[in-house]
Structure formats: C-alpha cells, structure tokens
Amino acid sequence: MRSYAAVDLGASSGRVMVGRVGPDSLELAEAHRFVNRPVRVPEGLRWDVLALYAGVLDGLRAAGQADSVGIDSWAVDYGLLDADGALLGNPVHYRDSRTEGVAEKVWATVPAADLYAATGLQYAPFNTLYQLVAEQVTGAGRLLLIPDLLTYWLTGEQGTELTNASTTQLIDPRTRDWSYDIASRLRIDLGLFAPLRQPGDPAGVLRSEVLEETGLRGPVPVTTVGSHDTASAVAAVPAAAGERFAYICTGTWSLAGLELDAPVLTEESRAANFTNELGLDGTVRYLRNIMGLWLLQECVRAWGEPELGALLLEAAKAPALRSVVDASDPAFLAPGRMPERIAEACRVSGQPAPRTPGEITRCILDSLALAHRKAIEAAQRLADHPVDVVHVVGGGTRNALLCQLTADACGLPVVAGPTEAAALGNVLVQARTHGLVGDLADGRALLTRTQPLTRYEPQGDTAPWRAAEARLATR
C-alpha cells in the first residue's frame, strides 16, 4: 500500500484527502476540510488564496507522511507573479464583473466562429482569455493557474498543467498545444505561461520550509495530476470497459457530456455552446457547463442554512415540473438574492412563482435534471455518440432526489458515485507514477471494485420532461 495526498479545491470548499492504493485496493479518507470563501473588496471579488494555501499546509500536516502530493482545483482563474516570483495581488474571482462586455471586443478582432474553430471552447464570460483581455496584463513576469500557483509555493518550480490550460481558450484541442495564432491576434503574451506539463509529470519536491511547516520527512514528490478538478473527476468515472456512457460532474457546477477521442469543432456545436476540454490519456471532455448546485447553495445561504435533508423532503412532496428555469442562464451567475431571482424568472416566463423553500428547491432540482437531459441529448447528437447509461459523480451523488430526477428526465439509468471523484482521479494519477494503476480503463475498473455506487432506474416516461423542455423553449 502507498499513500497519496490529494489536494482538491472547489469553488466553495477545499479538502486534503488521503488515498491508500494497493494492487487491488483503493481507500480514501478525509484529512482536512476548509472553507473557500471569496472576499469582496472595493476593486471587486477576489479569492483569498493565502487562506487556501494555509488550508493546504494544514491538510498536509493532518494527512501525514505521503508518497506523493497532487493538486487540482476549479479552472480559468490565475495569479500573476513579478520577475522575482512574488504574487502581485489576490487572484480575481471568475464571478467578478470585470469581463462584462469583453467578449464583444474580442469577437471584433477574432469572430466567435473563428475562436471556436481554433480552440473548441464554449463561450463563458469568465474564460481566462476574456479575463486577460479585460486586465490588459502589464508588469507581470509569470501567470500561474490556481493549482499551478499552489504547486509553485509548495515546490518552487513552475509549470502549466494541460487539462487546466485547455480551459483558458488559448489551447488548440487538436494539437494539445497553445493556439499561437489566437494569442497573437489578441496580443496575449504566451510567454507569461510556464511550460506545459502533462498529468503524471513530476512537479518537484516539497520545499524544506514546507516540510518544516507540515512535519513531513523529505523528499516528498509533487506529481502533476489532472489539475482541472473536472478532468480528475471524469478520470474517476467508474465506467466499464467498452461501456457507452455520459457523465455529469456535479457540485457548484454541473458539467454534463461525453468522453471522446477527438474534439467536435462544428458550427452547430459552437451554437449549442459545447466545450472541448482536454482529459487524460489523449481524451477530450466534450461537455456543457450548467449552473449546478450553486443555485441551491445560494438559496440555502439566503434562508439561513436550514437542514438540507428536511429541505429535500419538502421538495420531494412539491408538484413535479410545476415551474422550471434555464439552469444555464448567465443571469444566475452572480451571488445574492437567489430565491427572489428564481421566483422572478418563473413569473417573467409565465409560470407559477415558487414561494416556499421546498417549492423553490423542487424548481431548482427539476431545472437541473432538465438541463442534464438537454445537454446529454445534444452531446449525443452533435458527436454522433449514443450512450446507454449516465454516470453522476461528485457532490450531487448525495442528493438522491436529483439523481432520480436525472434518470427520469434522461430516460436512462443513472449510476451515482463516487462522491469524491476529483480526489480519487487525483490519487489514481499519482498511483500510476508508482505502477500501481495502469491506464484509464484499469483505474476505472479499480474504482468499480472498491467504491460504493448506487443505481437509479428511470421511472415513468419522458413525456412530462419533453413538455417542460418545450415550455421553457417558448419563453
């Protein structure tokens, strides 16, 4: 058995997990969990990256001696360093408003269709490309994406991990290298980025100061993993060899799509706002971003943090599909007043406005299941890639009502689990460096044998979901 520390940073919390891997065993335990709370300052919304780094150090201390460490996090955001490697300021949060109107300026230079044909990335207002155009970076010597920044602080070595780099809208998914033409046309200096790294590449060893801070004995290597948390989560989808599957990575966001061998760069795919992000072993994550459990998280915060189990029981009793909203609507991107905004969206679209927390929760879950259905159906059509089962991984696996509604909406069985998929994918890549796990299929087979999974069969027919979809499309 070998022990691996997986640092997994989400948009609302961070965790350090310990994975113990043997020839036919995989165990995961939580060593430390901490809040990831952004801070609104006069200049805008910022990540408290120093608090995150402190949480990582606390977690490594709690995890104890490890054979390797790996870091994954959310995508697109970055820190800027000066010529001496010092951080120039707190990283900007992707929900900050600085990119409003920037896309139109970019498209005036590089039309949206050209941008998609070159990078395969969906339009999202917070893509790194738009952030860089908004910021007009000057005076920086280096740009490091969030997991690469924390890796640099741990090791003193700089790199840019490929799966996360593919979310910047500056990578060509066919060559799996930088899109030099796009960067040149937009006057983005690719020299700001450290050299590209692949999952499995060495990323250095813990610095002596980190060893002293955490009490670990050196040398402790840091391994490059799929540092975009979705890349790690998709690597941990427990699909059987040859299985035709779709996946939904659930949490603050829902990422719903397919694992492909090549990108889909058609105009129809761009119009449907599907993205081609890079995955492990030459794969492409062809998916659509959906607002996810952020909608419910914001409502729960507004309601004073009621007990979630009781809220879901109320939701289960509420009328199904009475009102739905578009869970991909950018109108829900910003924080604040989420219950009122959801009710107003229902009123504007001519539907009954949910009033109670239970009704609003049911509206959210029905809307998410409907968005899952739409994304998976569209992905199959656009990629000409039919599926027989949907794998749900991540935090949403704890929400049995959402899993069942997703099965009902899709008309396909849903296999839910593992919950800590990103951490497990992180661990599996580290274990590969020691020869304990082989390729993606080997890792997934190990997950299937060792992790608890729950299967949900679709109930009823999909006619009510088709009707809800048509109702929403006409609003």
Topology:
Blueprint: E1 2-9, E2 13-22, E3 25-35, E4 39-41, E5 44-46, H1 49-63, E6 68-73, E7 78-81, H2 102-109, H3 112-119, H4 128-135, E8 142-145, H5 146-155, E9 160-161, H6 162-165, E10 171-172, E11 177-178, H7 180-185, E12 196-197, E13 202-205, H8 208-214, E14 221-223, H9 229-235, E15 245-250, E16 254-260, H10 267-271, E17 275-278, E18 284-290, H11 294-302, H12 308-317, H13 338-348, H14 357-383, E19 389-394, H15 400-410, E20 414-416, H16 421-433, H17 440-450, E21 454-456, H18 463-473
Parallel strand pairs: 1-6, 9-12, 15-19, 19-20
Antiparallel strand pairs: 1-2, 2-3, 4-5, 7-8, 10-11, 13-14, 15-16, 16-18, 17-18, 20-21
Keywords:
four-stranded mixed β-sheet, 475 residues, 18 helices, 21 strands, alpha+beta, single chain
Report on this structure.
The protein is of the alpha+beta class. It contains 18 helices and 21 strands. 38% of the residues lie in helices and 21% in strands. The strands form seven sheets. The protein has a seven-stranded mixed β-sheet with strand order 17-18-16-15-19-20-21, sandwiched between helices. A four-stranded mixed β-sheet has the order 3-2-1-6, with helices on both faces. Strands 4-5 form a two-stranded antiparallel ribbon. Helix 14 packs across helix 15. The longest helix is centred in the C-terminal third of the chain and has 27 residues. The protein is globular and about 60 Å long. The mean pLDDT is 96.
